[in-house]
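SMP-30/Gluconolactonase/LRE-like region domain-containing protein, pasting as requested.
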Amino acid sequence: MPSLKSLLSLLSLRAITLALAHNSSNPLLATGANLTFALPTHPVHTFPVGTWIENLAVRENGQIIATDDTHPRIYQIDPYYSHTPALLLHEFNNTASILGIVETTPDVFYVCTANYSSAKLEGYGEAYIYRLDMRPFSSSIKNSAVISKIATLLEAKALDGLTWLEPRDDAEGEGLLLISDFLAGVIWSVKPATGAVAMPINSTYTRSTGFGVNGLKIRNRKLYLTNSQQQTLVKVLINSKGEAVGNYTVLAQGGFTPDDFALDAEGNAYVTSFEVGRNGVVFVPREGGQAVYIPGMAGPTAAAFGRGREEGWLYVSTSGGDYDYLTGKEVTAAGGIVRVQVGGRG
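Structure tokens follow.
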């Protein structure tokens, strides 16, 4: 139960977000012009210093699945008991990092891997897509989560964001995984049933000379994507092949360095943003416009709404400080999972 102060903050934030969601003004997030709204941030789990938690997904039972960028590992975290150790689900031996994760059907997840140098902005080796089947999982049985490789992306440079394009009701398609490649500046697609790989999107909005297209989400056949270097959140209508078939709409641009994000039930975005001395979540109304900045996280990387009794919480994965890693400085903060009660639902 939130305190009276927290409750008043949530009510105020809710009023602001409802007003902003109906704002049809120019969708430009101007540097220094965005609102700041402090909300209490609560740690869910903290990893050892030097652990970069890159992404997360929430199971139907409320448990959190987290991917590790600094070690090729996948963990399960219990948000109900913060003292419970993170449970190692799997450690890979043929890749440097595990990044994006998405659930396609209940308790069936996919993750993408990457081999890249953040210092040199170069990729090396092969990238893979794996299925993580949690249906037979038992916390009392070691290695009971089933891992299987479904695709190899030979031309990928650094896979990152991962989302799921549902098959159409007319059975035109079988569903696709869409994966961002921030070094190549493109979006790949993979058919889980066959492992077939394609490149449906190579756009001005995905490209970069470094950290390009990053987070991906799909809502009502619209693909939402961030571009870290361009400092943008955009959306575009896509077809069953994952190809853009409409005009790109810029929802926010400038004033933040977006990573991944979560969409609430109304289509508003909670975008993780990492900058020197200014880390947090940026709320972007569903039609774009003035943003609300929620500070208080060390290197936020991705976000997901809780489920079940935790559905009012926004979980945020953290690196402990992105720029420390990228510039070779000593990392003194620990990555992990924090939660913020933002007043929305996923």
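Note for the archive: Residues 4-21 form the longest helix (18 residues).
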